[in-house]
Design a protein that fits this description.
By secondary structure, the chain is mainly beta. It has one helix and six strands.
Length: 71
Amino acid sequence: LRCLVGSEMCIRDSLYLLEGVLSLEMGERSYVLYPGDSMQLAKGNRYAMYNRTTKPARVLLVEMPCEEACS
């Protein structure tokens, strides 16, 4: 996890799709994730994940308080 120097954007959550296909929505943007894809999610961004298939999906989600990530 990293902090962008000179920016208020602080990365706090990181996810990695292990299996299946997921739709990820952040605000007005949407993404389709496939096995091996990863995303870093900034502090304060709300997001939702949906499995729109009939097959299982597995995600590794690493959460870290932003203060610790950027200190």
